[in-house]
Amino acid sequence: MAMAMVCLSDFEAYAKKYLPKIAWDFFAAGADDCSTRDENILAYKRIHFRPRMLRDVSMMDIRTKLLGTEISFPVGIAPTGFHQLAWPDGEKSTARGTLLTYSTCTLEEISAAAPGSLRWFQLYIHRNRAVSQQLVQQAEALGFQGLVLTADLPYTGKRRDDVRNGFRLPPHMQLKNLEGAFEVCKMNDRSEYGLPPNSLDPSVTWNDIYWLRSLTHLPIIIKGILTKEDAELAVSHGVQGIIVSNHGGRQLDGGPATIDALVEVVEAVQGRVEVYLDGGIRKGSDVLKALALGAKCVFIGRPALWGLAYKVSRLIGHKDESDNFICYHLNWKQYMVLIQQFHSGVTNSSEVHVELDAADV
User: Fold this and answer.
1) What is the C-alpha to C-alpha distance for residues 143 and 108, in angstroms, rounded to an integer?
2) Residue 247 is assigned to a ligand binding site
3) 124 annotated binding-site participant
4) Rounded to the nearest 10 degrees, what angle do helices 8-18 and 302-310 cross at?
């Protein structure tokens, strides 16, 4: 009899067992010693609730809104690459979320797989700016509702297992949104991600926000902010949202856990833009802690890939977004019951301001 999958660590264990080692190592990899990757998870354990009792918990509403668009509960899919390494349908099975530039499915395929859902497009800016411009304008034309600029990847972090494994995108997988965008080069001359070497533009600055604004009417969300100084710059340059992120610990080892960085970012923006978070979210209580500290919504990366590896259609990409992420969804509903015990009158996700033990935050 198959083991019941009751929490995300069960899906993680399954994925580790059944994915090819090179694929598992790619998804799991962190930069250098993986300290920041691991700290993203450990930091939640240092945050404690201050529970209150005898509150009416008979009614609850786990919906919230992102930039005015309602979603069924405050968890989305973070931009992660190369989903076909986990499941043949790739990003078509995780279409209700943020689509990465480095997707193994086209923008059109994603749009067809999730009509009517909330979809943001994540962008890396390439040295060939015409490529990035075309992607942005194509995403807007196809109905994507937001543009997510990743700010923390001028160069790829050193992921030791990928180096040891000699990771390269398999020849049968293509970065569909970039096909034909660059000069043809031999497979041996391509980077591990199937592109010509040094394709990303390391000269990107805050002024490029204005360039993006000239290309699109989509709201711009900047991903990779970890300090109050950069949060203030993001607001002053006119972004509509900030994702507190350290790239899952895959870029710079030794930086803060995202839940720790969230506090100063929220304090810096003072409600002028929406603040989201990714990294380390594994339970409904983690979602609650992030929302209590000021996040509007959280995004998950690796757990979505574990779900793909498990091949559960109900886990990701089913007919109704409320069926997505079963473990998070049910666990979050349980913690919404606790919310009302913490704070009288809280009846939905957007009102969460839970008391935490300040000594442990």
Assistant:
1) 10
2) yes
3) yes
4) 60
Is the predicted pLDDT of residue 358 greater than 50, yes or no? no
Three-state secondary structure call for residue 128: coil
The per-residue pLDDT for range 302-347, each reduced to its tens digit, is 988 888 887 643 444 443 433 334 565 556 556 555 554 444 445 5
Question: CA 286, CA 209: separation in Å to the nearest integer?
Answer: 31
Whole-number Å distance between alpha carbons of 225 and 79: 15
224 annotated as a binding-site residue: no
Distance CA 129, CA 125 (A): 7
138-150 average pLDDT score: 94
User: Is pLDDT at 183 greater than 90 in this prediction?
Assistant: no
Which of 169-178, 288-297, 316-325 has maximum average pLDDT? 288-297
| Residue 143 to residues 107, 115, 323, Cα–Cα distance (Å) | 10, 9, 23
Kindly provide the residue ranges of all beta strands, DSSP E only, lying in the chain, ordered along the sequence. Answer: 64-66, 69-71, 75-77, 98-99, 120-123, 146-150, 220-225, 241-244, 274-278, 297-300
CA distance 288 to 294: 10
Q: How far is CA 225 from CA 56, 201, 264, in A?
A: 38, 18, 11
Closest CA to 246 of 75, 40, 24, 42: 40
Burial class (CB in 10 A: 0-12, 13-18, 19+), 153: middle
Closest CA to 117 of 99, 101, 97: 97
80 a known binding residue? yes
Most confident among 45-49, 169-173, 191-195 (mean pLDDT): 45-49
Active site residues: 247
Domains defined along the chain, listed by start:
8-47+72-333 (3.20.20.70)
List Cβ neighbours of 19 (8 Å cut-off, separation of 6 or more). Answer: 27, 85, 86, 309
**281 marked as binding residue:** yes
Answer positive or negative: Cα dihedral of 214, 217, 223, 227: positive
CA 250, 252, 258 angle in degrees (round to 5)? 75
* DSSP reduced 3-state for 331: helix
Q: What is the dihedral of CA 231, 232, 237, 241, to 10 degrees?
A: 40
- Over residues 104-125, the pLDDT tens digits come to 677 777 777 777 788 899 999 9
